[in-house]
Amino acid sequence: MADLGKIKQDHQRFKQIVRGKIKDNLRKYMSEGELTGRQGKDTVKVPVPRIDLPRFKYGDKNTGGVGSGEGEVGDIIGRGDEAPGEGGPGEAGEGEGDKALEVDVTYEELAEIMAEELELPNIEPKGQKTIETTDTEYTDIRKTGPESLRHFKRTFKEALKRQIASGEYDPEDPVVIPIKEDRRYRAPEEDTQPESNAVILYMMDVSGSMGDEQKEIVRIESFWIDTWLRHQYTGIETRYIIHDATAKEVDRHTFFHTRESGGTMISSAYNLACEILEEEYPVSEWNVYPFHFSDGDNWSVDDTKECMKILKERIVPRSNMFAYGQVESPYGSGQFIKDLGEHFADQERVTLSEIENRDGIYDSIQEFLGKGL
Amino acid sequence: MRFIKSIPPHIRDLIGNIRSVAQDKYGLDFFETIFEMVDYKTMNEIAAFGGFPTRYPHWRFGMEYDQLSKSHTYGLSKIYEMVINNDPSYAYLLEGNNLVDQKTVISHVYAHVDFFKNNYYFSKTNRNMVDEMANHGARMRRYVDKHGIEKVEDFVDTCLSLENLIDYHAPFIERRGAEDDSEDDGEVPKFEAKSYMEDYINPDEFLEEQKQKLEEQRERKKKVPSEPQRDILRFLIDQAPLEDWEADILSMIREEAYYFAPQRQTKIMNEGWASYWHSKILTEEILDDSEIVDFADIHSGVMATPQGGFNPYKVGIELYRHIEERWNQGKFGKEWEEIDDMERKSHWDKQLGLGRDKIFEVRKLYNDVTFIDEFLTEEFVREQNLFTYEYNPKQDTWEIASRQFEQIKEKLLRRLTNFGEPFIFVKDGNFRNRAELLLHHKWEGTPLQMDQAKEVLESLERVWKRPVNLETRFEDEGLLMSFDGDEHTHESWDYESI
User: Fold this and answer.
1) Which of B417, B441, B471 is the last residue of a domain?
2) Cβ separation of B311 and A57 shorter than 8 Å?
3) Alpha-carbon distance B59 to A9, whole Å?
4) CATH topology of domain A196-369
5) Of B70, B164, B399, which has the smallest distance from its Cβ to A48's Cβ?
6) Closest alpha carbon within chain A to B420
């Protein structure tokens, strides 16, 4: 009865609307619904865009509602846009104001989402190949895992065993309550595949004009870049450089939490990048991805000249791609991206992107990674 | 029984088995139900189309699909079943569900179909909607071929933002016959005259003038609804200057809105009823001992309520059980209500055994609003731990506001009445004597969401093709919102209730 493929047209059309390719008038009704995923310590948002056509309605915040559960009058049961939700099977994510949903997501899955959402091409890696592992079938059982893979019967059995062993179990009142230690999860058995290596070198301008919002944009964007490149390469290293008038290498945490003041000498970062790359990452073995984020307000015309020279002679030739992301800030002149544009207009391996605000992140990732380099 | 061939034999037997138990032992009364087994992709697809795989093309089905398949992929939700209100009914089972899942779903489905067939609010729905939807699909595709996808889809989008402007009670109201259009034959009445006197007694200029007046009059009579109407879509179909294909699309969307309305009006009752019966049928008749744990897992998943949230399945099933118990024990009527002693009241048991009959009656005559209004008791509210919550703008938090029975009941009824949406009427189709449209928002103490209201006015203007106005209130001020096709204006307004 179902005509398979019919939904594909509607789905395709919806995705085109979301990407702003058709029916631009609808984009203003778009809300970025999201599934909140966890990947290690990071929280990631799996976008589930919705377009809700306007209606005559009351705002939830004006009307409130009825819920159930423990708690005293005055107790907080939700924050901000996360109004208490509706339960029931298959209801997850329906309606506005539902609680953000937490899912465990692997990098692999995230990357698939990216490929799907952003239509990113795969990268043709270079370098030596060694052996490394990847996932296949879910036939193994483990004590930890995502809830979506919980093996109910095994868990129940473990709980029963424990309760019988400890004498808690009463056949007259057979209540079995699994605790954390009882939980069992399905897990993948592993298989092998060749690997290749890549290094991502992040450089960020931390001069006074880069505010918290600008840094947050860089953080989100770099997370997705990491995810994508991790999907493409199996051995990934990441290095972080911050700069104002001088540059230094830092760890990941410092990278996103440093506030400096003072001027901007971009060449300082590029020089340091060259040192790191030339000493530690021979071109024959490594795929190299330098990403530089700044608000584009360099100190002087001379320094900009110096930058172009370093890029042209020492960085671009040894990189798969050099990417520059310019985050809009209220203070910057934003000149640097224009200078780069003039110098590298014909260079396929230099990618430039202007990121206006958080909404611009997807487009920017697409610009960076859309060439498949 | 008819089957689509994809159903494996052991499931067929199961369906037959559950069907006779439901019918013969428990007295459920359903349409013939055709089961089909589908994989999860097809299930997501059918669900995205609201159960009708033949529906017209539109991006929002793609959006639903996007959401369903993503939450499926990440294990957040799984659609166990889909069932269509139609005669015969169609039900879809998910391939790869384990046997206990299937047993639960099949029982659940039969109870839904019993509800579709017997509940009063479904009595006017089109029971041949599967064909009707396919028909809509074909018509819409024809318009797309003729006018292009952009144009047709834009118009559908416009209509969809007006989709809820219907009168949910309209199908049950006997309409008066067409209003005195007997003398309205379009002819100008003439004075009797001999043919040679005709030009003097009925001069052409006079006739022309009369004709114009008559037309204006008719125009005005036609445009102004004699009393404010809630079925704004009907009004637009009749009165707005639409092309034939536009009017047809608007009426398809209106028809579908009326078809789906009872499902929204009886969400708590319908899901509660289906859950009540799957639980009863499985635990009493269908499960063997080894399956009970798996069933408990499934059932508790259905009943789970997120912290602070509201689960219609849970509230529904519990309320039926509450009613059944009360009528079994005779906890109703004047005698019981007048007892002051709480202790005595809770131990009251006249052993009437009327519970089962009562819930069958309830499923026939009530909708969510009347169900809650009539049967929600203080005792039930306490047992179910219900509360009201409000938004606190100072802290940007949602807080428990009350555990008082009266307040909980009132809030719940308010959320359910008209689905918690505003009541909007069309009041005048010739507003300011300039063929402008005037709508009326019935004030209930809460202002409309203004940004959305403006957008809807734009949709209305696209249909009406003349300026549109909405009278409403904002706090204590009457307000007239207007959109003339170019810009939005508003002025203070002498708001009168209707």
Assistant:
1) B417
2) no
3) 8
4) Rossmann fold (3.40.50)
5) B70
6) A58
How high is the ipTM of this complex?
0.83
Option in B301, B399, B456 nearest A75 (CB): B399
Domain that holds residue B357: 304-417
> Which chain A residue has the Cα nearest residue B6?
A1
* Residue A56 to residue B422, Cβ atoms within 8 A: yes
A-chain residues near B451 (CB < 8 A):
54
Q: Do B412 and B308 share a domain, yes or no?
A: yes
Structural domain includes residue B363: yes
Q: How many domains is chain B partitioned into structurally?
A: 2
Residues in chain B closer than 8 A to A99 (CB atoms): 306, 309
- In chain A, which stretches have pLDDT less than 50? 1-3, 90-101, 130-131, 133, 135
* Interchain proximity B75–A60, CB inside 8 Å: no
pLDDT digits (tens, 9 = 90+) for B452-486: 999 999 999 999 999 999 999 987 889 999 999 99
pLDDT at A195: 59
Which of B366, B394, B417 is the last residue before a domain boundary? B417
Q: Is B423 in CB contact (< 8 Å) with chain A?
A: no
Residue of A nearest to B48 (CA): A7
What pLDDT, in 10s, does the model give residues A30-74? 776 665 555 555 556 666 788 889 999 987 777 788 999 888 898
pLDDT at A288: 87
